[in-house]
Structures
1.
Amino acid sequence: MKALAYEKAHPLDAFAISLDDIAEPEPRDGDLLVEVRAIGINPGETAIRQTRSADPGGRVVLGWEFAGVVVATGPATAGFAVGDRVMGTGDITRDGGWAERVAVDHRVVATIADELTFADAASLPIGVLTAWEALFRDQDTLPAGVENVLVIGGAGGVGSMATQLLKAWTSAFVISTASRPESREWATAMGADLVVDHHVDLATQLRGAGIDDVDLVFSTSDTGRRLASIVEVLRPFGHLAFIDSPGQLDVETFVGKSLSLHSEMVFSKIVAGRDASSQGRILARSADDVVAGRLRPIVTTTLRGLTPETMRTAHTLVETRRTIGKTVITL
Ligand SMILES: NC(=O)c1ccc[n+]([C@@H]2O[C@H](COP(=O)([O-])OP(=O)(O)OC[C@H]3O[C@@H](n4cnc5c(N)ncnc54)[C@H](OP(=O)(O)O)[C@@H]3O)[C@@H](O)[C@H]2O)c1
């Protein structure tokens, strides 16, 4: 089958992903074989392209956000049938879905309704799961007493879904950050009650809006460099949930306010093989929410065709770190 693959880790200006003929995936008992129809592109994948090389003689196939059609079901995949329209993620330790077909653990897949396009569906899984787990942990609800949330990076792929999930499923007041007119407009469209600028002092802007402190900060970018500002705006016993790689965090500063720190890695369950089916349930619920109008897909750029050119364009966009919503490639 055809797949977009590469051999050696490389930077964008030496882009080396090519369309190759590779062996068909070999599904495990718990896998679905899915014909891929659309893929979402994430900063994490462009980061892995820069750091992960294939074993000698091998190829790396990235891509852990897709929508498509089930073409085969393993013996341990109850609840799915050939022909089902689905969306899902995958396992970063296995080949991904930048290919005509992907073998994927059924526990991180959900069926989607006919009215949801493949492109729209492919914009959801990573944002929904990352935001859900960072905000609601394994409790399916915000920590007790959280009534307002500051979403840093509110126009990005994950921030967009965090804002939407908070407005759909909680009564929290949501403050999002965005630094440009178009990203401010998008953050507002995602449901933010207030938008502030992440390049301007946060505490000053919040005080200007009559907000003394916040209960939970959901941070998608620059968490390490912005830590002092985050600690400054959090109330005692507040929470910081972060999803980026912040480097060394000085948690000494947390002690004075008895703050809690929540990390999140969307693949931690599937890699550990524990409770992965909770992700399938969250995806199924979000697919229902889209059909019911409680959530909206976040595609802003659609590129057509599984080609090195579309993939290079997608990586170029994502690496600007100034995209709004999600870039999707349709097959
Ligand atoms: N832990 C996990 O499992 C997980 C899962 C998914 C993603 N991630 C990571 O989470 C981060 C966000 O992912 P994403 O898909 O939402 O990214 P994204 O879509 O590329 O985010 C783009 C947005 O980030 C905002 N931004 C840029 N620089 C910023 C800064 N210094 N401070 C605050 N916001 C800034 C931009 O807003 P303006 O244009 O308005 O400035 C832009 O709208 C990435 O580092 C990604 O690798 C982690």
Note: DSSP finds eleven helices and 15 strands in the chain.
2.
Amino acid sequence: MAEKVNNFPPLPKFIPLKPCFYQDFEADIPPQHLSMTKRLYYLWMLNSITLAVNLVGCLAWLIGGGGATNFGLAFLWLILFTPCSYVCWFRPIYKAFKTDSSFSFMAFFFTFTAQLVISIIQAVGIPGWGVCGWIATISYFGTNIGSAVVMLIPTIMFTVVAVFSFIALSMLEVTVVTTERAKHFYNPQDIPVTLYSDSDEWEMWKHRSDPVLHIDLRRWADLMLVAPLDANTLGKVASGICDNLLTCVIRAWDRSKPLLFCPAMNTVMWEHPLTAQQVDQLKAFGYVEIPCVDKKLVCGDQGLGAMAEVETIVDKVKEVLSQHSGVQQS
Ligand SMILES: Cc1cc2nc3c(=O)[nH]c(=O)nc-3n(C[C@H](O)[C@H](O)[C@H](O)COP(=O)(O)O)c2cc1C
């Protein structure tokens, strides 16, 4: 196998330094993590560009009569934070997604939280700290409007970096797996997140080294929600059948992670003795039932069998997630 040659950062030939890292998103990162990894990479780039723009802002500050300290510090932050943020938080998340390493995830969350705190301090902008944040910029409007306008640009950029870092840290990633029959009930274009179906499983796997989608999905997810769980899939899951992407993910599910299911079917199907047996079987596997409710069903019948209200489902997911993260931390 050809040895991978380091390609990052891409340095021009006349610089006597060699790239220190190998970076190839498509080759290294499993498809379900690709967009998240790229978004974090773009955030790292935005952070670096902001530090460069901050240097220009501090130059304008200097020209407008401010001290040289800010300019000197701005230069230091640029050459220090650009490689440090790459090594300290982008590389860990790249490695975490590449190798599914919980240590790298932990390292990322630790250093990325520090990055968020630094971005907030930069956006605030204490004069003398080498950053054009809000306090430094607004207070300079009274001294030199031209310099203050230039300083406003990095200030806005620091704020954007802080907001995006906060969103990245608090974001839940959702992926939807659909059955072929379920496709009759919605428009795929209305699904705002990644949507996988049976064809993806088979299109992704051509050779031995290719990703196996149902295994990658079960590794990636911290929680699985099956909503609605119809009578057909309920029967399959209870007896271990796995003949599509959804039932394969469920069959391969690591039972130390939560799996929640929301039964939904016609009242007579619900009242069939098989249903209670199969629901009990799923509960015996450790899966959590979000019970169906009594209401007028789409078919016109009135009675038990309607899927729980979305609000009930969201509340239950939040409750189970917080319990589970508590168990993992302890
Ligand atoms: C309009 C319509 C609505 C349906 N609603 C339900 C339902 O709410 N619950 C259910 O168990 N089956 C329902 N079915 C039957 C399922 O679609 C059928 O069992 C299908 O094979 C399920 O496939 P899947 O489990 O692979 O998604 C419905 C069928 C149709 C045509």
Note: The chain has a mean pLDDT of 91.
